[in-house]
Design a protein that fits this description.
TIM Barrel; binds iron/sulfur cluster; 9-stranded mixed sheet
């Protein structure tokens, strides 16, 4: 059915991975992903089937959090067609809406009022060849419409940092949207990443997963 989504989990937490980090946020985590990143910390979204829900059931759940910021995430949320009417409904209900996407799916149909947090997959993810580079043009178009989008690089090595820095400079990404550099904690030390960013005066934000620091032992629902 057109208004049914496969949901991995619904939860209320603190936004932890964007320029809105620290704000209360209701999360709608969709099941399924077309990628298999080496460092994936939410495998349960694609190796468990999830639960089918109507948009009505999701918006009913949100009634407990009136006016709260809502983030749709995954998995890869743009794989499910019903995510588009869901976004429209959340906007109509007055929520600020974010969507986190892997960068492998075209973002052109995402309403401009929705803030896209888009990954660009680095070599260490094993998924670099899945980046849809047309999305950079889409980000330019959306910016003219007033969108508040962001690009995130998840870095697992100095090699990833070097690659990402080159992409940021070549495409002048920092003139387009806020750019986040987020280290995979067990693979790239934050102090090393900080030093590299400072040495090159790269106009990016070092981003540590806030929820992982608040709740280090909780892997779901935060
Ligand atoms: S895109 Fe996200 S959910 Fe999918 S495999 Fe990569 S890290 Fe995991």
């Amino acid at each position: 059915m057109a208004d049914r989504l496969r949901i991995s989990e619904l939860f209320y937490s603190i936004q932890g991975e964007s320029t809105r980090a620290g704000l209360p946020c209701a999360f709608i985590r969709l099941s399924g992903c077309n990628l298999r990143c080496t460092y994936c910390d939410s495998r349960y979204t694609w190796d468990e089937p999830g639960q089918k829900m109507t948009t009505g059931r999701i918006t009913d759940w949100l009634k407990d959090f009136p006016g709260v910021m809502v983030e749709i995430t995954g998995g890869e949320p743009l794989l499910q067609e019903a995510v588009y009417p869901l976004m429209e409904e959340l906007l109509a209900d007055g929520h600020e809406v974010l969507i986190e996407t892997s960068g492998s799916m075209n973002i052109e149909q995402v309403p401009p009022q929705v803030g896209v947090i888009m990954d660009l997959k680095c070599p260490g993810s094993g998924m670099m060849d899945k980046n849809d580079w047309h999305n950079l043009a889409a980000l330019h178009s959306r910016r003219k419409l007033g969108s508040r989008d962001e690009i995130k690089f998840v870095l697992s090595s100095v090699r990833d940092y070097t690659w990402a820095g080159r992409i940021v400079r070549e495409h002048r990404l920092a003139d387009l949207v806020p750019v986040l550099f987020s280290p995979v904690i067990d693979q790239l030390a934050p102090d090393l990443l900080a030093r590299l960013i400072m040495e090159e005066q790269l106009p990016v934000r070092l981003q540590l997963q806030l929820h992982s620091q608040i709740w280090p032992n909780i892997k779901r629902g935060v």
